[in-house]
Amino acid sequence: MNETKKETAAQDQKGGFMSRFGRRGEREAADATIGERAAAEPAELPVRPAAAVREPSAPVGRDMNILTEGLVIEGNVFSETAIVIRGTVRGDVTCRGDVEISGEIVGDVKGKNVRISGGGVQGDVTASEMLHIDHSQIKGALSATHARINNPIEGDITVRGTLTLQREANIQGNIMAAGLSVEEGASMNGQITISRERPATPPVRPAVVAVPTPTVETEISFEEVDVAASDETSGAEE
Asked: Are 44 and 61 in contact (CB under 8 A)?
């Protein structure tokens, strides 16, 4: 009886060991299969968020000329591209692009969009599009398509579009504009003309038709005179 129990226990121990070994082999096979699948599938790369594209507020590099603070130019300045003036120019400034001024200019300024902030100009300022003046000292006439002013001006202002006078504006001169916007606190001392008249269209001249001059042919005939007969007649008369 004891031997039978021992054999049964031995079989159970043997069966249990083999069972555990079988389960371990199954787990290893399953792990190997999962590893093969993972190796076969391409790894997904982490997706990085797209970087936001920042638009430059002003032209940079070769598209902009910068006159740094402390630079003094004696003479006129001409630029095909945008220009930033932080120094001093004693002469006229002419630019086909935008002009930004925070320095001092003794002379006239011409540009596309002209912005004067914290600077000074002793001369006329002409902007083909927008003129913006803020906390600057200006002594001269202003001309632009649209203008926004927020400081004292000594000179006449001509604007083909809308002129906006902010609270610190103090205009000592005449104003001519198609539209005027005045904030509380702004002051003006001069004649104000609001005109939306369009420039007069030049009269159309009738087309000139060239009339050919007729050619007149004149025929001149000379009679033949008998010279001998004339001589005899003259002799007889004598």
From this structure: no
